[in-house]
Every structure is written in structure tokens, then in C-alpha cells.
Amino acid sequence: MPVSRRGSGSVTLPSGQSLTVHHRTTEVGGEDLPHATKKTMADHLRKYESLFTLTPQRMRMIVDAFQDTLDLGLKQPGQVVPMIPTYVFGWPTGEESGDFLALDLGGTNLRVCLVTLKGSGQFEITQSKYRLTEEQKQGDGQALFDFCAECLRTFIEANFDETERQKGINLPLGFTFSYPCSQERIDHGELIRWTKGFGAANTEGRDVAAMFKESLAKYELPITLTALINDTTGTLIASHYVDPSSKIAVIFGTGCNAAYMENIGSIEKLKDLNLPTDAQMAINCEWGAFDSFQHEHLPRTKYDQIVDETSNKPQEQAFEKLISGRYLGEIMRLVICELIDDGVLFLGQETYKLESPYVFETAFLSLMESDPTDELLMIIGIFSHFFAVETTLAERQFFRALARLIGRRAARLSACGIAAIVSKMKYLENLKEGEIIGVGADGSLYNKYPGFADRVHEGLIDVFGDKGKSIVTHHAEDGSGVGSAIIAAMTKIRKDRGLYEHV
């Protein structure tokens, strides 16, 4: 005879809401009475394990192809992975000092920072955030930069008194513009393409630095745009400013990217600039575009193909679409919807709330993986609160396992990108005992997704063996704010000394 039991528990959802979840489990002989049995879900899980599992051998093949792609981007302009020269020359000394502004145009917010560099790797920061609307992201490009200038004016009025403003503060500003641009000098940047859901018109193919300077002039702001940088480049410089072991910077968040310091002699496409070949320059890889057109190397499933084809930028950012926080939830939603259509999940229930693209947030995967309860109360809360469907324990266990597969694949692919740079620069070949290769890492996936960093490290060991243990990722310093300010300081010093003035 079936036995019905009731229970309850409290869960905290991504919105910050705390819910008390009441649930009824109906059992026969200690087993759920499911509309999807444990056996059925286990059979389906094996299918997805084969689809989403990345073997060490496959990872090493991806690393080899990735390294070839990075080399090609340094040789020739206009490549899929553009390997963008940043005109940030060498590492900071750690002794840079003074007041600098930083503007960070991110995926969700606009952030304005006043950074006081104190030398010896020390700094102070004052900042304000301003919310970006979807209309601003998709509207006119010049209007977007006008909004940036308005926020700067508000920030200056709040942080500098009238006497200071009348004296003419004229602060150098580093503008963190985290979208792929081709640069001919450090205060120039022609937008190649929008990413991360942006689509502001009349901007792609134009010099966004010039557009921003026009907005600064319109609002008569006492600011000099000194450097246009990518957040990953800023992360590289900020991380090294605080910890000189840092050689690579990576972002694993709404998007994904990497930066590192390259020998100028290896950047063949810059040979006509007559720069000193023994100097170094930071390279913004823009590696999210890896394998975007030929699709020869990445393990794309049919769900990844749907994500690509239905995105606002189809046939672009193939690597990013397998890794970044913008897409992981959508990949899982597509799997769930397929199982609903096949009559496996939620029989007899209304599932229309799961039909809208991107309604299933990547944060849900994170919560599922970290659910500590035997009954998986967090997963009950997610599906009942957001999608008005009830779940069996077998389904919830399947969802957690599926989230783990998708999240693990993302981390292991991320490790492939890091490994490609490490291999290219031969960082492991001359490493002394006890030395490490520091990788400054930032972004919501790295910082918030449970086990993401550990899985990256596991992937690096799978690629390099025990030598991979010498590659250590750590939470990066604030590249978009502090890093941008440090680069503005480095650029001002370089220009004052008359070094490489034409760039």
C-alpha cells in the first residue's frame, strides 16, 4: 500500500527570496512512485554523460588546435581568434601612483571608479554602479556613450567638491570596453563585433574611443581618455601589480576571454611598426571565437548548435557558447525541453514556463550542484517557484547530475584555453622547483559556480600530467577598475617619456 509523507524545508533562490518548500513524497516499498522512474532517468543520464564528457585525449587535441589558432592570430590580421595587440607595453613596476578614473562598460552595469594608486602594489578605490537598460544595449551607439558621460559627470560631482572642479582636475581615464576591438594605438579601438547580448546600432566598425571622446566633449568633462582596454587585459595587469607570479588572466563569466604578455618579436602582424622586438606587449586573445566557423575541434552537441543558431550572433563565439554563464542554463533548458517533448518529464503538468529561451538561469545549475539536502529541496524550490511543476526525487537527482555534466564540461574546456597559452609560451619548460604559473581569474562562473576552479585544475593536470599542478588559478584583482587605472598610469608615464608615441 502506498505511503504518503509530507515534509518541508527552506531554500534561498537567486532573487534573494527565501521560500519554505512543502513537498509530498509518495512511496511504494521505499521507492518514489514516479512519472519518471529511477531506471528511466539513469538510462537518459548515460546518454548525456557520453555527450558532455571530455576525455584527456580529446582535451589535448583541442589544446593543440587552440595553440595553432593563437599563433595564426599573431601572424595575420582578421583571423577568427584575432589576438588583438593592446599597446600595453610590459608589466607594471608596482610603483605607479596618483589618481586615475576608470570606466567599465560591463554586461549588466556601468561602473565608474576613482582609483588612487599608492605604489608597492597598494591602492584605494571609490566606485559607483549604474544599471544599463536593454534599450541602451540595443539602441543607438552614440546615445550609449552619452549615457556613459552622464554617469561620469554625476560621479565627479559626487566625489570632487566645486573648488576642485573649478581648478580643473583633468584626470586621466582608462576605459574598460570588454568587446573585441582592433586597435592601432592605445586610445583607439574599432569595434569588431558586439558580444554578451549587446547590439547597439551604428557602432560596429567604428572607433568607439572617438565616439566616447565626442560624448566627453559634449558634456564638457575634465577628463582625458588615456587608454581603451579590455577587462581581461586589465585583469592581467592588476593581478601582476599585486602578485608578480601572475602571467595569464582569464575571465569566465557572462563571456569568456584571456590575456597574456607576448614578445613583440612574435607578433608578426606588427612588424611594420618598427617596435623593439625584445620588448613585450599584452595580447587580448578574444578566444571566445575559437572554432566558430569550421567547427572542427570543439565537442558541440545538438543543444549547442541550437544555442548558436538562435543567438543574436549565430556562427560567432563558438567557444564562449560552450563555456560562459550566459549560455549554460540555456543548454540545460534545451535538454529538459527535449525530455518533456519525448514524454519523459513532468507528465500531465503544464510546462509552458520552461518554453521561453534563457528563462533557465545558469545560477540554477550552481544551486542544484550545491544542494546539500537529501530530498534536494533547492531543486524542488527552483522548479515549483519559477516553473510551477512538481518533481520526483529521481528527476531531481537527474537534474543535479546533468548540471554537473554541463558545468564540468565548461570548466574542462576552460582549462584547454589556459593550457594552449601555457604551451605556446613554454611556461612549464624552464620552471624552477617551487615556482608557479599564476593565472588571475575573474567572472561569475569562476567566483560563484561550485567546484569550477577545482575542475579547471583537474583539467590542467589531465593535459600536462603532474606538471599541471604548477599552474595555479587565483581570484584576480579588479581588472576593470584597478587594472584600467594602472594601465592609464603606465600609459601616461610612457607618453611623458616619449616612448612609442605613435601608438
UniProtKB/TrEMBL annotation:
Broadest EC class assigned to this enzyme: transferase
A Gene Ontology BP annotation from the UniProt entry: glycolytic process
Annotated region (Disordered), positions in chain: 1-22
Organism this protein belongs to: Schizophyllum amplum
InterPro entries documented for this protein: ATPase_NBD (IPR043129), Hexokinase (IPR001312), Hexokinase_BS (IPR019807), Hexokinase_C (IPR022673), Hexokinase_N (IPR022672)
Annotated ranges, domain Hexokinase C-terminal: 247-490
EC number: 2.7.1.-
Polar residues compositional bias, start-end: 7-20
GO cellular component: cytosol; mitochondrion
Associated pathway: Carbohydrate degradation; glycolysis; D-glyceraldehyde 3-phosphate and glycerone phosphate from D-glucose: step 1/4; Carbohydrate metabolism; hexose metabolism
Reaction equations catalysed: D-fructose + ATP = D-fructose 6-phosphate + ADP + H(+); a D-hexose + ATP = a D-hexose 6-phosphate + ADP + H(+)
Keyword Cytoplasm: no
Family: Belongs to the hexokinase family.
Name by which UniProt lists this protein: Phosphotransferase
Keywords: ATP-binding, Glycolysis, Kinase, Nucleotide-binding, Transferase
Domain Hexokinase N-terminal: start-end pairs: 45-241
PANTHER family (UniProt xref): HEXOKINASE (PTHR19443), HEXOKINASE TYPE 1-RELATED (PTHR19443:SF16)
Molecular functions per Gene Ontology: ATP binding; D-glucose binding; fructokinase activity; glucokinase activity; mannokinase activity
